[in-house]
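Q: What residues go here?
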């Protein structure tokens, strides 16, 4: 791990800034990810901007994850996130300011995970765990459940930067499937207004409404989808 990446990963943005000024390579990636990935992980928007200003490639893909310990609160980039770009991480980790900075710095809005999951799908909660936070820390171990306000802000940022609300991954799931399953009514509304198709079905034959129609805890979201013309 180069010193610059180590500083970013350790949350020492000021140290990383000095290293950049002294000529550290912002694109070193032999460890499997770059300082830009690490800065996104640590929510360091200022360092993200500094790295981009110093020539960091905004679109590197992770090729290897970091070691992690069970039942820990360590910051980590698990192998399950391969081949995420910094933009995909920022969307998953709900960092709207960083999403905008990366896009302004040339990040590819069409980047996707290996299964075709896009930044917008990640921001909307597709694949997110009900027992972990967006960085993978279990709620019982100190992880914090994301607020709908933050999800909505991130979804808005991704849409602004070119995210396609009609896109589907290899399983046929869309951002709307993710938001509906999580009961995020305001996010559902924003996606529909942006052009999401309310009756699109995934590879299992489920529409967003079909995922939740029988769930009492998702009644408000189901009613909202029906008001937009959704059917099971």
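A:
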């Amino acid at each position: 791990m180069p010193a610059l990446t180590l500083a970013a990963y350790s949350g020492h943005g000021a140290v990383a800034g000095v290293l950049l000024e002294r000529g550290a390579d912002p694109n070193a990636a032999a460890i499997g990810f770059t300082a830009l990935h690490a800065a996104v992980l640590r929510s360091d928007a200022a360092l993200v901007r500094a790295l981009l200003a110093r020539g960091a490639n905004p679109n590197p893909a992770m090729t290897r994850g970091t070691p992690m310990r069970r039942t820990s609160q360590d910051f980590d980039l698990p192998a399950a996130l391969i081949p995420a770009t910094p933009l995909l991480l920022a969307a998953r980790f709900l960092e709207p300011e960083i999403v905008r900075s990366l896009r302004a710095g040339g990040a590819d809005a069409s980047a996707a995970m290996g299964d075709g999951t896009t930044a917008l799908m990640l921001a909307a909660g597709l694949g997110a765990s009900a027992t972990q936070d967006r960085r993978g820390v279990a709620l019982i171990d100190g992880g914090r459940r994301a607020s709908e306000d933050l999800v909505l802000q991130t979804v808005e940022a991704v849409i602004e930067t070119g995210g396609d609300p009609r896109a589907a991954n290899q399983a046929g799931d869309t951002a709307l499937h993710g938001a509906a399953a999580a009961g995020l009514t305001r996010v559902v509304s924003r996606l529909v207004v942006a052009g999401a198709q309310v009756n699109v079905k995934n590879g299992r034959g489920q529409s967003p409404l079909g995922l939740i129609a029988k769930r009492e805890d998702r009644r408000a979201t189901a009613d909202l989808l029906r008001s937009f013309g959704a059917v099971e």
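A: Context that may help when evaluating the design: The chain has two domains: 1-65, 84-232. The chain has twelve helices and no strands.
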